[in-house]
Specification:
Elements lengths: L1 E4 L9 E5 L2 E5 L9 H5 L6 E6 L4 H9 L8 E6 L5 E6 L15 E2 L11 H8 L3 E4 L2 E4 L10 E4 L1 H4 L2 H6 L6 E11 L1 E4 L4 E9 L5 E4 L4 E8 L8
Parallel strand pairs: 1-7, 10-11, 11-13, 12-14, 13-15
Antiparallel strand pairs: 1-4, 2-3, 5-6, 8-9
């Protein structure tokens, strides 16, 4: 199993543990509530599962034919867009490592793991933090830090891709960004530069339009700011 170093953006990612003399995958949904903060620690659990697996197909065939493949059912509590609470039963492919003697985790460079699970991740990938070389996304060498910024976009206004794209006239310059939090009805103009820690909060009923050409460095923006054409 390929694993990579955990950052603040990966605290919910599954990690590897030794249990009953076997390598096991531990997912956050399997952790008791009182231990979740410990699980999220980037000092205690320093690596997480990238979901890249290297497996001998002959070994898989032996396990399947002998009906010996064991995968633990994970109970995941989720809420639908309608507001209904549901229980999702799932299995993790990485949990299969428990079935193989000699299974190991290989710590790979961060560049092998660029997930896009939410629009938070999509913003990073679309920004000037990355470029495509030979069909592969690579970090912009101009960025001074090896890690990517921590981005948190509000699910209500930015959660869907269509709504997310509507809110950016152009993706901001994020080369010197460390942390971005955006919540509420917020839009971005063209040529916006974000640096350091930027927090933008539009309360219910308010709207914030970040003007084109703005430079926000270590700023908190709140209240109501409208930019209208004339």
């Amino acid at each position: 199993m390929e694993v990579t170093d955990k950052t603040r953006a990966d605290v919910k990612g599954g990690t590897l543990i030794q249990y009953e003399n076997k390598l096991r995958l531990l997912e956050i949904a399997q952790v008791a509530k009182q231990n979740v903060d410990e699980f999220k620690s980037i000092t205690k659990f320093k690596i997480f599962n990238t979901n890249n697996l290297w497996v001998n197909l002959a070994a898989i065939r032996r396990l399947v034919e002998s009906n010996s493949m064991q995968l633990e059912v994970i109970v995941n509590h989720k809420a639908l867009d309608s507001g209904s609470n549901v229980i999702q039963l799932e299995t993790a492919c990485g949990d299969a490592v428990r079935n193989f003697n000699g299974a190991v985790g290989i710590n790979v460079p961060r560049r092998r793991f660029l997930p896009v699970k939410k629009t938070d991740d999509l913003l990073l990938i679309m920004s000037n933090l990355y470029s495509i070389q030979d069909g592969t996304l690579v970090m912009n060498p101009v960025r001074m830090f090896p890690s990517v910024p921590l981005v948190k976009l509000g699910d209500h206004s930015f959660g869907k891709v269509k709504e997310f794209l509507r809110r950016f006239a152009a993706i901001p310059n994020m080369l010197d960004l460390d942390h971005l939090t955006v919540s509420g009805d917020v839009t971005f103009g063209k040529g916006v530069v974000l640096k350091g820690t930027v927090i933008i909060i539009a309360n219910h009923g308010d709207r914030i339009d970040i003007p084109s050409g703005s430079l926000l460095e270590n700023k908190i923006v709140s209240g109501n700011l409208r930019i209208l054409d004339h």
